[in-house]
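Lab notebook, bench 4. Still working through the backlog of constructs that have no structural model yet. Next entry is a single chain of 138 residues. Request: give me the structure tokens for it.
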Amino acid sequence: MIKYFFLTGVHCVELSQSGSTVVAPGQSTTLTCRVSGYSLTDWSYCTHWIRHPAGKALEWIGRICAGGGTDNNNKLKSRFQISRDTSSSTVSLRGQNLQTEDTAVYYCARQYHSETHQQEPCTKTLYLVNLSTVHQNL
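Model written out:
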């Protein structure tokens, strides 16, 4: 089985998630990031998913922007998909066929990319996702 643990932090723009889940290796799960303080349809912003495996470099997973279009890391796009629900202000990351190598700290982050507005200082929410194999005595 794979265990997920989540930690969240909140700053001027809030991206938050609660709860935890247990998934067996090879299974799927979805992380959700609920945003407030900006709109998922505002052309000034994109929302990204990034992960940081222990002892390794940050790894960009992908992003979704105002029009709903996504860009993904070619190495991960067959197993990770990003979607959004504007009615609930959530951005989701679905991971499929998850393995222990997917253990990482997962970040949901807002990117400001418009030149028409002044960017205010904001940061993102931190997600700690710990995937570990659990053995049961039979």
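Notes after review: The first strand starts at residue 2 and ends at 3. DSSP finds no helices and eleven strands in the chain. Flag for follow-up if needed.
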